Amino acid sequence: VTETFDYGFLLRISEDARRGEALNEYLSSRSYLAGYGPSQADDEAFALLRGPPHQQHVHALRWYRHIACRSERPPPPWCPPDGTELPKLRLYNSLTRTKEVFVPQHGNRVLWYCCGPTVYDASHMGHARSYISFDILRRILMNYFKYDVFYCMNITDIDDKIIKRARQNHLLEQYRAKKPSASQILQDVLTAREPFQAKLAETTDPDKKQMLERLDTAVTAALTPLQGAIKSGTADAAIQSQVLLDEAKDLLSDWLDSQFGCQVTENSIFSLLPKYWEEEYHKDMDALNVLPPDVLTRVSEYVPEIVEFVKKIVDNGYGYESNGSVYFDTAKFGASSGHSYAKLVPEAVGDQKALQEGEGDLSISADRLSEKRSQNDFALWKASKPGEPSWESPWGKGRPGWHIECSAMAGSILGASMDIHGGGFDLRFPHHDNELAQSEAYFENNHWVRYFLHTGHLTIAGCKMSKSLKNFITIKDALAKHTARQLRLAFLMHSWKDTLDYSNNTMESAIQYEKFMNEFFLNVKDILRTPTDITGQFEKWEAEEIELNKSFYEKKEAVHEALCDNIDTRTALEEIRALVGQSNAYVAARKAAKLLPNRMLLQSIAQYLTDMFKTFGAIEGTEPIGFPVGKNGQNTDLESTVMPYLNVLSDFREGVRKIAREQKVTEVLQLCDAVRDDILPELGVRLEDHEGLRTVVKLVDRETLLKEREEKKKLEEEKRRKKEEAAKKKQEQEMAKQAKMKIPPSEMFRSETDKYSSFDDTGFPTHDAEGKEISKGQTKKLRKLYEAQEKLYNEYLQSNQNGS
């Protein structure tokens, strides 16, 4: 900023020449050109001068002309652009069941809590549905929309399912350790089967009934051989008993738990199981490239906070103690001013099946249900029974209810209100509705969560997936068939809030999309490797480049609009596919015209797409373009290291091929083909020969290339087989024709006694099999056949004569 023009010294000078000299000296240290705007002081100083300063006073003269010019010709008014209104991010909020403009409570910071897994078994694709989807949303909010996201997630390591599974595993291990005889195993399984079959008979849920029937069928199939072996006294009984024990372990462990579960009192038994499965869960998430949470909370580490949380709810008048347990008073909460129960799914209030599932298998006995003032009330704190872990509390020894854990832990980390709460669709009621109620009862507010996001269900080939129904695919099983990127692409190609069907068709679509994108990236990399000098990479833009660039910016806008619209990655990926399609068409047209595509334009497009897939979590590493080569980031610099050598090899091979073609040295050409088709694919290198153009070199995963090679061999084998079949068929037809030619026309109809009964002297039929005279129309058709055979027979006779 320039200092204010102090022109007072000019008033003390009367001579014009001296005044100009003094002004020049003063202005020599002032900026009066670049961005200079004259002030009133400049105008007043200008008025003191009778004319322009002498030419030797350069600074004063420039200043004088600048002021004079602005006085005579003021600058035209500036017209600001109208601009366009940018789309705002909207998220589907389960609280309102509509898309709402996303507005964080604290500037750019986003507080986010996500319900984590109950760790009692292997993580499955249902878990992946939620955690990959939320990872995608989280990355987009952080890396695309540039929000400062603070992400908290829990691990449920105290739960009815965990307690029951831990007890059952412990008791079954004890049973196996005793090494019971074959007869004892048979007797125990038959005993355990009675309550199991009673349970099967009273089960009405079709999916659950089908699961129990499958188990019963497997047990029945294992029972028969063991019963036969014991009856006949064969040594095979020991082997058959172990087969039965494996098939019947679920119903046997259920029976053992009902008999001896109350005797399991060691708390460590209940901590080993969740600790093991939590570790496996984290390994699975790492393999899926799911970012870890900023904060992870475990129920077992927050029991004191949970107790204090329950105490305050009771103190606020929304909870009550009953027989050592504490329940939430839904009626009182719903009737109080400023509160509402079941905000998410009000129509589910009173759904006893859902409520009982929320309470847990160990907490729905008749005595427990009778403790509550209302069937809709739910447990905040459960008095522990024999065979259950317990902690001290003001109400006696007990353990946390399921819903309270999230409220206490999220409240402890995020405070009285969060921006986003996430979870699976099936958690809306009762879990999330109960979370909302007890948290708002604790904080005495009505906005514990501002935006509730729920991911859609996952089905397996159209069927419901459920761990309890034993109809699930573990994440490890899924990763054995497909890569983490392919699974993520499958999720990106579907709406995060709708049902996703995990099927062969779904995964094949993801694989083809990945292949489509990878080929584009590889082609652009190849174009960028074309030798050129620094200035040569800046090429003139013709109409084709201008058109592609226009499409590029249109697609970027369309992707942005899609992501603003509830983070619609499905539409975003389709817009990306269209952009790549247009780019491929541009490259093909340039190559057809024997012209190089514009490097800088294609580089910009490829870098943008790479950045977007990094944002989606589908690309790891620092490569500026494309999917990384190699696995687990081990070969992040592989391409830049080996590509110069591969280019030398490719150029040398092309030179050898040229000489071999000119000299017609077939063996050398075959060796060059072997390098391309057999040797380099084993190293993860693909060579693409193009007539009249240089060979394209691409680095691709070895497994992908070997698979492509096998598919190519299959196609070639199928082509060869069809060619052989066609040749064989042609040969058979030729042989049939040769055999037919040898038949005299007078004999051709005589053998068809099932059709004709009388013939004339030339062997032409006159009556059908029933003795009726053949009609004129039929005679006309037969005459044509007769004449055709006569022609064939004459050809045969002629060929024989020529041959002799």
UniProtKB/TrEMBL annotation:
GO CC annotation terms, alphabetical:
cytoplasm
Which cofactors, if any, are listed as required? Zn(2+)
Alphabetically, the GO molecular function entries are:
ATP binding; cysteine-tRNA ligase activity; metal ion binding
Question: Reaction(s) catalyzed by this protein?
Answer: tRNA(Cys) + L-cysteine + ATP = L-cysteinyl-tRNA(Cys) + AMP + diphosphate
**What keywords tag this UniProt record?**
Aminoacyl-tRNA synthetase, ATP-binding, Ligase, Metal-binding, Nucleotide-binding, Protein biosynthesis, Zinc
Q: Where is this region: Disordered?
A: 713-780
* Pfam family membership, one: tRNA-synt_1e
Matching entries from CDD domains are given as:
CysRS_core, GST_C_CysRS_N
Top-level EC class as recorded in UniProt: ligase
Enzyme nomenclature, EC number: 6.1.1.16
Per the record, the domain of life is Eukaryota
Q: Which residues are in the tRNA synthetases class I catalytic domain?
A: 102-510
Biased composition (Basic and acidic residues) is annotated at 713-737, 749-758
- Alphabetized InterPro entries for the sequence: Cys-tRNA-ligase, Cys-tRNA/MSH_ligase, Glutathione-S-Trfase_C_sf, Rossmann-like_a/b/a_fold, tRNA-synt_1_cat_dom, tRNAsynth_Ia_anticodon-bd
Task: Output the GO biological process annotations, alphabetical, semicolon-separated.
Answer: cysteinyl-tRNA aminoacylation
Known role: Catalyzes the ATP-dependent ligation of cysteine to tRNA(Cys).
What protein is this chain from?
Cysteine--tRNA ligase, cytoplasmic
The organism named in the record is Pygocentrus nattereri
Q: What is the lineage of its organism?
A: Eukaryota, Metazoa, Chordata, Craniata, Vertebrata
